[in-house]
Structure formats: structure tokens, C-alpha cells
Amino acid sequence: MKKIFLVYSFLFSVFIFGQEKSGAKQFWENLQKQCGKSFEGTVTEGATNDTFRDKKLVMHVRNCDEKTIRIPFFVGDDKSRTWVLAYDNDRIQLKHDHRHEDGSEDKVTQYGGTTTNAGSATLQFFPADEETCDLIPNAAANVWWITLDETSFTYNLRRIGSDRLFTVKFDLTKTVGTPAAPWGWKD
Predict the structure, then answer these.
(1) What pLDDT shows up at residue 52?
(2) Predicted TM-score of the model (pTM)
């Protein structure tokens, strides 16, 4: 009887104290390791007339704390876009913060979604939320996802029910110079 009790005690302690981190937590911690770094990217999927293809694309994991990671995404000289990721209750939210050159908010901003499960250490999906549906009715069928591993970060958008697909892949093996602050930020 004592052996059985010890085995159950051991299993209980492994279950309670030795649980592995969730996919969302691992993803979050791996992304935080990139804080302060900048990377160049290329469009790997998208329309052939996409205006991003002929521009230098740079992401800067600029601001990280326990609950928020802000990643400005520069398209040539356009510094209007920041991906804002928020971690809460083992879920990750993605919002798109769009600004004008004077720092004021664009009328189309703060759209995105929240993961519906913990995802994995290398992949998180963000279906369009209600705020997005109200702001951009055509984006109600949007799903964004981010992949992350030791060598790359990809930002992806698919509009379900259409041919719309956009992917930009950043090479995490080569940092680039840190860009100036995005529009609406101060150094």
C-alpha cells in the first residue's frame, strides 16, 4: 500500500509541478529571445503586383515585456505598421497598429484576432475577431498565422474562400541595422 501511495504521489507531483509549458508559452518565450533585433524579409506568397515585392522589408522586435511584444514592420520608407502581440491566459492576440507619418492612428487600425487554443511552440493562428469584422467586413474570413523557428519568422494572411494569400518570411540567422522609430513612436 505504501508503494502505491508513493507512486501516486510521484505521478501527481510530476503532473502538477513538472508539466511542460504550453505551445503558446514556448512560442512567446522564443519570440522574446529576438527582442531588440531586426531582420530583413522577402515576400514568398502574394499577388505578382504586390507593392511590397520591390521594397526592402524589415521587422524590428522593438519592445518586449511580460505581456506585450511590439514588432514594427517597415516596407521601404513606410513606417506605418506595427504588429502588436499580447499574451494573456495562455492565448496570444495579434493586432495591427497602423499610423500616419504624423503618428496619428489610421482609420483602419487595431484589427486582428486571438488564438483559440494554445497552438504550438512554432505556430500560432489568429482568426479575425469581432472588432475586425466590424471595422473591415471583408476581413471577416481572414486568418493570420505566424511561424517561428531558429532560422525564420513568417507572417501570413489567408482570406478563407478566396485566393488571397500573403506571406513574408524573415531570416532570423542574419540581423540587420536597427531602423529608426516607426511612425507614432519616440526613441
Answers:
(1) 81
(2) 0.88
